[in-house]
Amino acid sequence: MATIMTNPDLADRTYITPITPELVDQVLEKEWPDALFPTMGGQTAINLAVALAESSALEKYGEEFIGTKLEAFKKAENREIFKQAMNNIGI
């Protein structure tokens, strides 16, 4: 667990529950955060971020990612897309 995310001086609320797209959708509806920073939660956060973006939950609440865009996640997570990107830049 990342201590910065659960520090009461930094976090308005801390949710102790399994993380699913459905649950995060409910939290977004209740909390209306300014933005989401999915690169601070490892692979679980990345998978969740992609699922939320593809389900249109982010659009529904007017949310956006900061730090990394959906296209970058998809490029990094898909071996073929990543390979093509590396070939395109000569690596």
From TrEMBL:
Residues 2-74 form the Carbamoyl phosphate synthase preATP-grasp domain. Keywords: ATP-binding, Ligase, Metal-binding, Nucleotide-binding. One of its GO terms (cellular component) is cytoplasm. It comes from the Eukaryota. The keyword Metal-binding applies. It catalyses: hydrogencarbonate + NH4(+) + 2 ATP = carbamoyl phosphate + 2 ADP + phosphate + 2 H(+). The keyword rRNA-binding does not apply. This is Carbamoyl phosphate synthase preATP-grasp domain-containing protein. It comes from Rubus argutus (Southern blackberry).
